[in-house]
Amino acid sequence: MKIKLDETISTSSLADYYNNPDVNVRPVLQALDVVARHLGAQHLTNVGRNFFSMRNPYPLKGGKELCWGYRQAVRVADRKLMMNVDQAAKAFYASKELMGLVLPALNARSVANIRDVSDVDKKNLDRALRKIKVVLTHRKDRKRAIFGVSEQPANQTMLKVKGDDMSVADYFSKRYVTLTYPQLPLVNVGSKRSNKKTWLPIELCEVASGQRCVKINEVDFAEITERPVSLPVLVSKRSLVRSVKPALRTIRTRLPLE
């Protein structure tokens, strides 16, 4: 891939703007925003125009957590530039064992309570886990997205190994580790195509960090809104300044930034 210089944006238009408000400074502000956001994206989790540090989250039920962050924008002020910073809060999937999402989806308190998974439970589990990215615990590999769950549990889902039929549970027992919960369904991290499915045991998957939870149910919403006093609703000024300070250093203009 070749990178070619397309245009040079001069910051002199900022000085001209104060003498003539009709001067268009939007390209300069957009360029400064890109520079500031680039540094934030290198160290923080980026969701839209928001950045999250993922530190000190507030735990929610169902394997989720509420994380605090900020959104920033460079603005023109009286004879100077300003970095406008607002607080942001979003729900993420907690970076823990995938079982933390499985139990609430199956309405079970513990894995010991899960005996037979009904067709209705499988549909609920499929909806809860689909598109969530996981990392494997039994070997090093890239993050993989879940495309669905198996119809049969691990000890009944069969595959071909050197021409012989073998259950997924037996395969992992011989190749990696004996499964603790072979009665649970498997997750497909291969493809939607029937001939390219890759089955993995739930207990060997962890939720990858930095995944925004798009769907907030009534329980989550009630838990967030009913405890306003215990939640760190207002991020301290010192915390915000510490977060955006590296981005401010990257912006070099002849006008002061505050």
TrEMBL record:
Residues 116-209 form the PAZ domain. InterPro entries: ArgoL1, PAZ_dom, PAZ_dom_sf. PROSITE patterns: PAZ. PANTHER family: EUKARYOTIC TRANSLATION INITIATION FACTOR 2C (PTHR22891). This is PAZ domain-containing protein. It comes from Phytophthora oleae.
